[in-house]
Design goal:
3-stranded antiparallel β-sheet; extended; two-stranded antiparallel ribbon; 5 strands; about 300 residues; alpha+beta
């Protein structure tokens, strides 16, 4: 695994050094850019697969009683084996309790027995709780009937506005779900459209592409509002950057965050002025000259 990791790091270094601008042939430059993007995508998939393999190995070793070390010997004697079984059972109980602590209960339902099916001397002894996780994935299509008035004195028609967050033919939750499918689940736009069509949502992959590419201004406004609230939420901010490729060109992904939020910006450079622009949430630069600066 360490050898593969070294190879991946070497690929990253090569990708960072490639200068597509130096290739004169436009067709060759475009083909090489596509190949570099493909290599970067496959490298990310390989990293993810390696992390999953390591996690599954650790889980398998723990189930075998070997702890986190894959080659740790086990004592096969009777008392030690019984002790291991007891410790494993206690560990599973703690894990289960910890899991239930993280499950949010949305509703409670009391399940009743048919009294007629019970013996006459049966006594009520309370309840036994069982937590079942479930997800409802259903449509919530709404026909808004907006009141309309006409005033002859002004010659204008007045319409009731849509609720906050609604714009166009699709609701805010649907737009957020498309972003989640794309960025968290790595689903392509046609696959997202297929899934939504299967659920009864009539939408084109072009509309989804417009949301994901930032053509829909409401998403950018929402991001700016989140960043502005995050900047005002704390006296300090944390920043970091990592290399990223945009259409085959080397650029930088700026990460701006604190414990309450996180935001990402793609920039062509990472110099001082770029960092200031990110910290100012893209507002126009303002230069202030004091008497000390003039002196």
């Amino acid at each position: 695994m360490s050898g593969n990791q070294g190879g991946i790091n070497a690929v990253d270094e090569i990708l960072q050094k490639v200068d597509l601008a130096g290739i004169q042939d436009e067709r060759a430059r475009e083909c090489i850019g596509l190949l570099l993007n493909l290599i970067e995508s496959l490298t990310a998939d390989l990293r993810k697969a390696q992390a999953e393999i390591l996690y599954l190995r650790g889980q398998l070793n723990r189930r075998k009683g070997g702890g986190d070390k894959p080659n740790q010997p086990k004592d096969s004697s009777g008392p030690a084996s019984q002790s291991s079984e007891k410790e494993r059972a206690e560990t599973e109980q703690r894990t289960k309790r910890g899991k239930l602590d993280r499950v949010r209960i949305d509703r409670e339902e009391v399940l009743k027995l048919d009294r007629a099916s019970l013996p006459p001397d049966a006594q009520f002894k309370g309840y036994e709780d069982v937590v079942v996780q479930e997800l409802g994935f259903v449509t919530d299509n709404v026909r808004f009937r907006k009141e309309k008035y006409y005033a002859a004195s002004t010659g204008q028609t007045y319409l009731a506005p849509l609720p906050a967050g609604y714009r166009g033919e699709f609701g805010p939750n649907l737009k957020s779900l498309c972003l989640l499918f794309s960025h968290l689940c790595n689903m392509t736009e046609p696959k997202i459209a297929d899934l939504l069509d299967n659920m009864g949502i009539v939408i084109s992959s072009g509309q989804i592409s417009a949301w994901l590419s930032g053509a829909y201004p409401g998403l950018q406004e929402e991001k700016q509002a989140i960043v502005e609230a995050g900047l005002n939420s704390s006296a300090w901010q944390h920043m970091d950057d990592t290399g990223t490729r945009v259409n085959g060109e080397n650029q930088h992904c700026q990460v701006l965050c604190n414990p309450l939020y996180g935001a990402y910006f793609t920039t062509a450079r990472k110099d001082r002025l770029t960092i200031i622009d990110v910290l100012r949430n893209g507002r126009e630069r303002v230069f202030r000259f004091t008497e000390e600066a003039l002196g």
